Amino acid sequence: MGKKLKRLKNKKKKAKAKAKAKAEAASSARPTPPPPPPWLELPPEVTANILHRLGAHDMLKSAQEVCTTWRNVCKDPSIWRVIDMKNLGKYHDMSVYLETTCRQAVDRSEGQLTDIYIDYFATDELLQYISERSSQLRCLRLGGCYGVSGDGLSEAAKRFPLLEELHLVFVMSCNDGIEAIGRSCPKLRSFTLSESSYKHSQLPCNDDALAIAKSMPGLHHLQLLGNNMTNEGLQAILDGCLLLESLDIRRCFKVDLSGDLGKRITQKIKDSKHPYDSMEDCEWNTDIFDCKENIRFVRTLLDFAVHWTLKCGGQTTTGEIREKWTGSLLAGWVGVKIERLRYMAVKEQTIIDGSSTDETKEEEEDFRSCCGDEDEVEDTEELTKADLKDDLDDYSVKMYFKGVSIAGPGDSGSRLSGIGVVMERSCNFSPIRVQKKLDFYVEESVADYLALLDGLSEAAENNIRRVFAFTESDILYYQVSNFPAPNFPATSEYAKQLRGLTSKILSALSIGLGLEQERLEKEVGGMEELLLQFKINYYPKCPQPELTLGVEAHTDVSALTFILHNMVPGLQLFCEGKWVTAKCVPNSIIMHIGDTIEILSNGKYKSALHRGLVNKEKVRISWAVFCEPPKEKIVLKPLPETVSEAEPPRFPPRTFSQHIMHKLFRKSEDSGEEK
Amino acid sequence: MSSSTELTEKKVFLLKSLDGVIFEVEESVAVQLEVIRELIEGDCARPFISLYNVTSEILALVIEYCKHHAETCSGGTSATIADEDLKTFDNEFMNVDENILLELCSAADYLDIKSLFELTCRTLASLIKDRTIIEVRKMFNVENDFSVVEEKAVRKEFAWAFK
Q1: Which residues 6+ apart lie within 8 Å of A394 measured at CB?
Q2: B43–A contact, CB cutoff 8 A
Q3: For testing contact with chain B, the best of A8, A22, A40, A46 (most B CBs within 10 A)
Q4: Quick check: A66 and B110 CB within 8 A?
Q5: Rounded to the nearest 10 degrees, how much is the dihedral formed by the CA atoms of B120, B123, B129, B132?
Q6: What are the residues whose beta carbons fall under 8 Å from the beta carbon of B4, sequence distance 6 or more?
Q7: Fold of B12-129
Q8: Does A610 participate in catalysis according to the annotation?
Q9: For A425-461, what is each residue's pLDDT tens digit?
Q10: Where are the domains of chain B?
Q11: Start-to-end Cα distance in chain A
């Protein structure tokens, strides 16, 4: 460049003084020092200002390695007073690394830390680490951190006596710590608690509001987003927090501001946002976190499944799976590998009229148009496809999934969500398709997630063991791959108990057939071979349940199936010619017999034909465990003791996997036959 | 700031760059330079103000920036349109080579122009972001001045993080 820049010897104030002193004396001196690299000439505080904008991670990871000047700037504790570790989603599967980086940043602050922002990877342990070193903390912001508990937060809060701002955005189950936090941090002026709009429990609940009212009287600013509080809770807040200047209760749909309460807010609070106000200018990126929670659910589901297969089955082990599918999202029940699909041949989307009878067709078109046509997929994903070709066996699919959400112009316009999934199989089978119009509207990121979930359910129904899933949603991709696998001690205990119960029931069933006690257990594989598989069914609430079925009528291929549920009725059994809804008895477990026992008993025990319905008001979740015999090892046929001349064998001998194939083909060849 | 402009007649001030070039600016522009505003208030701004740290090339750019901002803000357009306009202008304005950017940043710091300082810092940060260490060095012509030992130490410090 060759541009001269006189060395800045002094800080601004001195410079000003100089300028003043010399203002009258016109200096004609033309200093010409050799041009040094401009970066090194910036005052350190300017360099610090610029580098700080990179965020804690980039400062530690790269900036400080550029040159000694930058390194020295990055060593100064004052640059670490504000640690920003937001939006680091791209470092997927590296939460441990991010946590260690964060600890290092905290170390560098040498106790001067005043503000810290963390998305996704915070844990109770990390909070403890920070709290032990940062008594000056004034602002803490956690986004989408599911590794943080209410206890962890309230413990940490004890060491933050100066805390003025606390923002908790989609931090799960922190709610029970609110009161303790309020008591520990008397200076708290600003508090945010934001829930996902897609929360599992939609019941009115004033716990959060009451805790805030009780323990945070000094609040000036309160954001309660998507909370399930009612007017009672809001009233308590207004009574308890007399200093409130701003109140944001967007998405709190259980609050009614049409009456006096609304007036009171308008009169008392300078700046208020109401439940139905737009979220557009919301500084918390709610879509991402919303989606995150959904992903958490998928991950939970998958991780449960992995865990279960590992704990209960003899066939699959972690080592095997991990080795085979390194770096991908996995489960024993369904192995899922998510790839990003980069193609965007989106045609103008037509708005589907809700009453149209050709919905399915139009949706199909819509879905197609969103996905581009298959040729394009082939073009852009040639590499991946070639890679995968050999991997597709009879139990694998490539799954392309997509959620579509269309909002008509304006708030009053028709809004519609749908999902589409295409699963390509090896050449022996026709593709599996799932296309649904949802009876509720969700944002597209959520619809994407639902498509994935439904696709996985469908895959499981079809006994698919591996899914290569493709998404064009970056958000979904990063989030699925970013979420650390949780550990579930409760699950393994449940597995253990359930395995005991299985033995008891099988022996009772054996006695019922006039066999020795251990006979059925032996026939289905015994302790060594009987595989327990875990599945979680999630039925969103549905305004018009009569129009849809959650899970269509079927019998299970398993020997026995155990079901736990969240006390929302929906499971129905076909009994004496009609559908009967199973009662929800508290503290009970539902058990029914599957095809395997029906075959072994030559039809003396019936495999229960059942289906799952969705509920109008409540989300239904059921946790099902299937006890299945080994795939190939055992040939299932009616036991000789159950066969006589009067009762000839009703089922031909088949292995478990042959039975599944038989069922599958029967289903696809003749759908008129009873499923 | 604007009220004083309206009350008094349009005053002009002379700014002299490091390389001796003299610029004539109106008060509404000059007061955006915090340093100069202080000088004006202290009545130390005559006959001209020498700015030893800013070359004529950079000073011309700074004045262009301040002029545009002064005009847009007092132009009577609605706030949102003015905002949009400034945004476009700022984006265009930042479309210069990295060394000019650095000098602008340094000048904005020295002359104490908050909005320009913020803008240049933000832009510089975005240039560094997502680039590798080597790319950053190349882009800003910064030498790797670590000794072999130091460099090893830096790497070592980070090795543990990847365990």
Answers
A1: A425, A426, A428, A429
A2: no
A3: A46
A4: no
A5: -80
A6: B27, B31
A7: Potassium Channel Kv1.1; Chain A (3.30.710)
A8: yes
A9: 877 778 888 888 776 666 676 677 777 777 776 776 6
A10: 12-129, 133-163
A11: 78
